[in-house]
């Protein structure tokens, strides 16, 4: 949230040069305030787990947020009870007449399937097209980021020789110009769990895109469009402390080829309790998105989107 200061305070220039968000008296007194309307398109099979992870982060700000949940009508989830979906979720047909301050498109365990062969691909394309006129800012996560970059900009994904799995150090590439990472350390950590990647060389061909963060190990971290209306995040900052452990134990039990998650267990020993390195950065990421790119930018009257 901003610091409200008197007009023409001498400290203003210093604070703004340090990327501290300040608001003058005259703007603060004329602000209209209402709850933010956020749409969560949950593509994960374990919907309740994903809901909890994201709501925990979205709720960790002083902003009031109203959440609508959506799933794809063209694919019937098998890991979430129909009762839960009926009670809490809507489909695209239910929400398409509404407008939203922000939307989150989650990842999905379909990354090794060509986009066009995903069961709900046509519906997802319709939702992403609709978002251009009905959503102010959209946050795409993991496979959702790959799908968004492919749909909006034609950027392909590539299979990896082995799963990108663990907690990887990232660095900001434009700290003086990127409010999404305001308050972050020079090096911050993000969990990844994916079999495919996007590549810098493809993103650099698209003038409308900017790479905001990157890891020397896991590659591209965050991409944004030049209008800061779409953000594409390749990792899972929302993950709980034991999410990677659950995935690792599941794959081991099924006899699948899986390496120990990178930089996760002390001494790479799965019998040890995992160390959480990403919680602070995760909370800042979602707070900054809500504050700087949703709350501060969306028109008070959503019909003016």
TrEMBL record:
GO cellular component: cytoplasm
Pathway membership, UniProt: Amino-acid biosynthesis; L-methionine biosynthesis via de novo pathway; O-acetyl-L-homoserine from L-homoserine: step 1/1
InterPro entries: Class_I_gatase-like, HST_MetA, MetA_family
GO molecular function: homoserine O-acetyltransferase activity; homoserine O-succinyltransferase activity
Top enzyme class: transferase
SUPFAM superfamilies: Class I glutamine amidotransferase-like
Origin: domain of life: Bacteria
Catalysis performed (reactions): L-homoserine + acetyl-CoA = O-acetyl-L-homoserine + CoA
Role played: Transfers an acetyl group from acetyl-CoA to L-homoserine, forming acetyl-L-homoserine.
Keywords annotated in UniProt: Acyltransferase, Amino-acid biosynthesis, Cytoplasm, Methionine biosynthesis, Transferase
Site positions (Important for substrate specificity): 193
The protein, known as: Homoserine O-acetyltransferase
Matching NCBIfam families: metA
Gene: metAA
Pfam families xrefs: HTS
List of catalytic residues: 142, 236, 238
Family: Belongs to the MetA family.
GO biological process: L-methionine biosynthetic process from homoserine via O-succinyl-L-homoserine and cystathionine
Important for acyl-CoA specificity (site feature) positions: 111
EC number: 2.3.1.31
CDD domains, per database record: GATase1_HTS (cd03131)
Protein's organism: Anaerosporomusa subterranea
């Amino acid at each position: 949230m901003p610091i409200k200061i008197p007009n023409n305070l001498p400290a203003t220039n210093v604070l703004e040069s340090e990327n501290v968000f300040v608001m003058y008296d005259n703007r603060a007194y004329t602000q209209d305030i209402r709850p933010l309307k956020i749409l969560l398109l949950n593509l994960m099979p374990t919907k309740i787990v994903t809901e909890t992870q994201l709501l925990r982060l979205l709720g960790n700000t002083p902003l009031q947020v109203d959440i609508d949940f959506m799933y794809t009508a063209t694919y019937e989830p098998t890991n979430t009870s129909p009762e839960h979906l009926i009670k809490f979720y809507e489909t695209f047909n239910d929400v398409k007449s509404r407008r939203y301050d922000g939307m989150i498109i989650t990842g999905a365990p379909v990354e090794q399937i060509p986009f066009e062969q995903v069961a709900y691909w046509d519906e997802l394309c319709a939702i992403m097209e609709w978002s251009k006129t009905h959503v102010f800012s959209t946050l795409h996560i993991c496979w959702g980021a790959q799908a968004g970059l492919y749909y909006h900009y034609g950027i392909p994904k590539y299979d990896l020789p082995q799963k990108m799995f663990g907690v990887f150090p990232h660095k900001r590439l434009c700290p003086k110009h990127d409010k999404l990472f305001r308050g972050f350390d020079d090096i911050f950590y993000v969990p990844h769990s994916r079999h495919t990647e996007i590549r810098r060389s493809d993103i650099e061909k698209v003038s409308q895109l900017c790479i905001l963060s990157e890891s020397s190990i896991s590659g591209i971290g965050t991409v944004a469009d030049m209008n800061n209306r779409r953000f594409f995040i390749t990792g899972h900052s929302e993950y709980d402390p034991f999410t990677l452990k659950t995935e690792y134990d599941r794959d081991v039990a099924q006899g699948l080829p899986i390496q120990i998650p990178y930089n996760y267990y002390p001494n790479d020993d799965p019998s040890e309790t995992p160390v959480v390195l990403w919680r602070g950065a995760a909370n800042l990421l979602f707070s900054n998105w809500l504050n700087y790119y949703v709350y501060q930018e969306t028109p008070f009257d959503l019909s003016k989107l």
